[in-house]
Amino acid sequence: MKAICLVFCFFFVQGHELPPPCESEIYCTGELLRQVQMAKLFTDNKHFVDMRLLSPPDEVLAAFHQLASEAPGQAVPRDKLQEFVKRFFDEPGKELQPWTPPDWHDKPSFLSKIKDPNLYTWADELHLLWKSLGRTVSKDVKSHSEQYSYIYTPNPVIVPGGRFRELYYWDTFWVIDGLLVCDMKDTARGMIENFIYLIDKYGFVPNGNRIYYERRSQPPFLTAMVRDYYQATKDEQFLRKALPALEKEYNFWMTNRSVVVAVNGTNYTLNHYNVQVDGPRPEAYSVDAELAELLPEEEKIRLYTELKAGAESGWDYSSRWFVGEEDSPSAASLKDTHTSAIVPTDLNSFLCLNEFTLAFFHRELGNHAAAKVYEEAHQLRQAAVEAVLWDPDKGAWFDYNTLTNSRNAAFYPSNLAPLWAHCFRNSDMQLKAFNYLKDSGALDYHYGVPTSFENSGEQWDMPNGWPPLQHMLIQGLADIPLEESKELAFQLAQKWITTNWAAYTKYEAMFEKYDVNSGGKPGGGGEYDVQLGFGWTNGVALRLLNQYGDRLESAAAPLNASSLIWVQFLLLLILLIQG
Q1: Which has the closest alpha carbon to 283: 18, 21, 532?
Q2: For residue 77, how far is the Cα from the chain centroid?
Q3: Cα(133)–Cα(156) distance, rounded to whole angstroms?
């Protein structure tokens, strides 16, 4: 195979410098940011860039330049930096106030489906957490936006929780899923409208509504959010209002994140994550700067862009993006991140689903010519995913590496994302993918499916299991027209609920990720401590409780691969008796 990558050149090839994460000389670039973050005044770099300015930016910068001039060529002493920050910055989080969604109400209808009394009580408490995660934006953010890194949005939000004080893009898909389960359609609509507002402002949905995120996105889930809201409400007027923004976002991905791969003389257009923005991530400045410290300048710039592309993927970070030496790929580390060189199975599945859904929306609104355009794009995508990512011998889809011109055969739950997105051209692929999963070893873990088998120390690797990956895998299996697959979907849902429930009973909290080796243990690794809250965890749990509540048990024994053999035997026995 030969790969030809578009929109992929670095500044030294193009002959001009890359832009910073945003134009702010306080929050995104400049000496003030560098000195404060490298001095490590706070344990988390995100703390500083989330702080509100107490004076206009020009005054703050002038005061800093005066302070720095007292010792030219040297860093400002740490104690003076601390005094400066205390004088000119307020603590983070002041831009938001607690907010109770007006459409929150006791005892949503889905609770009646839950038979286990412990899970019923727990689900009721999860529903209550929407109140604790609700936030409304201070009016001062709109009138004095220059003093905040927070990007104003018109409607209140449900935040993920912990250090994540703002709206995050792909997290919100599962938050909205949970809100709809809880009959909170107005809150869900308001959050969708926030994303439409951001598309009108930027042309795409940023990673989150902070200015230091404004030049990178996240997995494109807005079209699926609108689909779920439309299915719940049949609000055709809202669909008509949202559709131009959805098309604008789709065009952004096709214009700015496309890549062409040639297979057997045929060119296929697919997509990748690619953020050509210079400098360390402001919210992780010292982490990135220290990682790149000893690298040559060109390699340092390359690494900064690849780290941002990794953040755009939502998988920040994972061995999935590491590309090491051909003779020792297992020795690769975070320095070897080459996210933009990877053509991801899941991203292309998401866009495949978007194309199918945009065609559906246009048909619903009577625009058959536009529907045909997206139907053709969907068919081309299916063909490209099959030609480039599908391995007929292994029976699954695999990321394609444009540096090595090969597929990455390692296991990730994302290898099965086309099942969830229905991005395949024949049902035999579903059955082969089901068998691939059974043989992969991923079912041998008692408390969920691991994100990978590589224990790299990064959070999107072993031993962590992440809620969105569990949900997509479960739903993809449930959609296969095979009783054994549907039963496995339920058993994986039981595993995940057991994990969440065990942690909740121990800590009275929900976490963003969990350890699949230990029941009730939160996940770890990466750049920050595991966070409480937690938006998408709650949404996935509520979705599974709604879907399988009549069968799920709080004290169920975990299922492993040997248990699955017994499940298969019992199903076969039932079929024989029925036959």
Answers
A1: 21
A2: 38
A3: 11
Amino acid at 309: A
Tokens of 540: 């996935």
What's the pLDDT tens digit per position in 166-214? 999 999 999 999 999 999 999 999 999 999 999 999 999 999 999 999 9
Length of the chain (residues): 579
Give me the amino acid identity at 37.
Q
Count the alpha carbons within 13 Å of 174 in the hemisphere toward its beta carbon: 24
Lookup: tokens for 265: 């003389």
Residues 579 and 576: their CA atoms lie apart, in Å, by 5
- For residues 441 and 445, what is the distance between their CA atoms, to the nearest angstrom? 8
∠ Cα 536 351 288 (to 5°): 60
Residue carrying structure tokens 């536009």: 370
- Which residues are catalytically annotated? 316, 512
Beta strands at 52-53 and 2-4: parallel, antiparallel or unpaired: unpaired
The CB density around residue 66, as the number of other CB atoms within 10 Å, is: 9
φ and ψ at residue 526, rounded to 5 degrees: 80, -155
Which residues 6+ apart lie within 8 Å of 435 measured at CB?
395
Distances (CA, A) of 48 to 26, 91, 145, 208, 282: 10, 8, 17, 16, 9
| Helix, strand, coil abundance in the chain, percent, nearest 5 | 55, 10, 35
Measured distance CA(108)–CA(117) in Å, rounded: 16
State pTM to two decimals.
Answer: 0.93
pLDDT tens column, 337-348:
999 999 999 999
